[in-house]
Specification:
181 residues; alpha+beta; Nitrilase/N-carbamoyl-D-aminoacid amidohydrolase; six-stranded mixed β-sheet; two-stranded antiparallel sheet; 23% helix; C-N_Hydrolase; UPF0012_CS; C-N_Hydrolase_sf; NIT1 amidase
Length: 181
């Protein structure tokens, strides 16, 4: 993220996509990338406090919730989802992250053929803190605009204060039950 000629944050993707969807997609990011080692604090911008994540990180709600606790108002997910995973999971995961964190979610997405064996799903979109898609692009190159209304975001948080209702005293206390043979 740049601010008048200086770098203010550099986030490194923490979750690498190592998946094999039989007959459809095989990816092994760990074969050519090292995972990042930290989640960065949200960055202040004129639009709001921005929480940084990348692509496969979207599948891990713990990051969005940690960024929300740290003050994020907008979560970003620049991505290159595959067609099989994107068509099945892209929008629903983005909407879930917006609803559970009560943040705007901005997701720029690569679209089209990356190389002979990989095509990206595309469908860049913006979701509001209530979970409504407020702007989106379909297939191919495109640009969409959305208003980031922080007064609305704070009203959603005030009217449904889920952050204050969380029970961290209970999370992580569930013991694995023995499975009967």
């Amino acid at each position: 993220l740049l601010s008048p000629g200086r770098l203010v944050a550099a986030y490194r993707k923490t979750h690498l996509c190592d998946v094999e969807l039989e007959g459809r997609v095989t990816m092994k990011e760990s074969g050519f990338t090292n995972p990042g080692t930290e989640i960065l604090a949200p960055v202040s911008t004129p639009a709001g406090k921005l929480g940084l994540s990348i692509c496969y990180d979207l599948r891990f709600p713990e990051i969005s919730l940690a960024l929300r606790r740290a003050g994020a108002e907008i979560l970003t997910y620049p991505s290159a989802f595959t067609v099989p995973t994107g068509s099945a999971h892209w929008e629903v995961l983005l909407r879930a992250r917006a609803i559970e964190s009560q943040c705007y979610v901005v997701a720029a997405a690569q679209s089209g053929k990356n190389h002979e064996s990989r095509t990206s799903y595309g469908h860049s979109l913006v979701v509001d803190p209530w979970g409504a898609v407020v702007a989106q692009c379909r297939e191919g190159p495109g640009l969409c605009y959305a208003e980031i209304d922080l007064d609305y975001l704070h009203r959603v948080r005030r009217e449904m204060p889920v952050q204050g209702h969380r029970r961290p005293d209970l999370y992580g206390t569930v013991a694995a039950a023995g499975l009967a043979p």
